[in-house]
Amino acid sequence: MTHCTNQDVLARLSIIYCLGLCLGAGAAGEPPVITPGRHGSPPSDAFVLFDGHDLSKWQSASGGKAKWKLGDGYMEVNPGTGNIVTKEQFGAVQLHVEWATPSVVTGEGQNRGNSGVYLQGRYEVQVLDSYHNKTYYNGQAGAIYSISAPLVNACRKPGQWQTYDIIFHPPHPWNGRIVDGSITVLQNGVLVEDHVTLIGKSTTAALFHGAVATGPLVLQDHGHPVRYRNIWLRKL
Ligand code: MG
After folding, report:
1. Could you report the per-residue pLDDT of 187-205, keeping only the tens digit for each?
2. How far apart are CA 124 and CA 219, in angstroms?
3. How far does residue 222's CA lie from ligand 1's centre (Å)?
């Protein structure tokens, strides 16, 4: 019978640890080669939700065709026609969205250029004209509505195109409990939400409730003619 000393055990554990380090990066295989986009255009592995030409990836929240207006390379909220919803469902994503609030400014606070990007139809990244327009902090542009105010106000002037780049991991059920999710948001290239925890509670006026593995992306009709273009995501 062979006896192992403590040194033997430590040596064997060290070898296993080193093997783990060496193999760890390769366990999932070689990272795929992709072609990145330029100036916000989709990389080669992106799922394009809107390229400026048609609403074929979208439907009305009430069913049937999405009724938002199509312009020259953009879509525009058609007030009163309701939210629009992707036909496909998504879990964790990297999402790119470009948006512009109306250049003709009307209203104030929440009543100025309001719309929203709802991950899984549950968690709203607020879209609002927050350029020289005060409102409650966790309801301004870049906020996770009612959950987290943005770190800074990075808004461009009304009418100008702005970007959201969002990293989203959904809260989801696992083994009889809800695993927390997270959301990170860059507005116009500036970090405004830094790995904010999501516990599975939907934000105000969400279309859907309850933590799930996958859900649709939803864009909000809040009654204002906000525009969107160049919407794509990568499944993570
Ligand atoms: Mg909104």
Report:
1. 999 999 999 999 999 999 9
2. 9
3. 6
Q: How far apart are CA 117 and CA 99, in angstroms?
A: 10
How many angstroms does the Cα of residue 88 sit away from the middle of ligand 1? 22
Rounded to the nearest whole angstrom, what is the distance from the C-alpha of residue 227 to the centroid of ligand 1?
A: 13
Domains of the chain: 47-235 (2.60.120.560)
Stated pTM of the model: 0.88
21 pLDDT higher than 80: no
Query: What's the longest Cα–Cα distance across the chain?
Result: 86
Residue 18 φ then ψ, to 5° = -65, -40
| Position 170, amino acid | P
In tens, the pLDDT along 36-67 reads 999 899 999 999 999 999 999 999 999 899 99
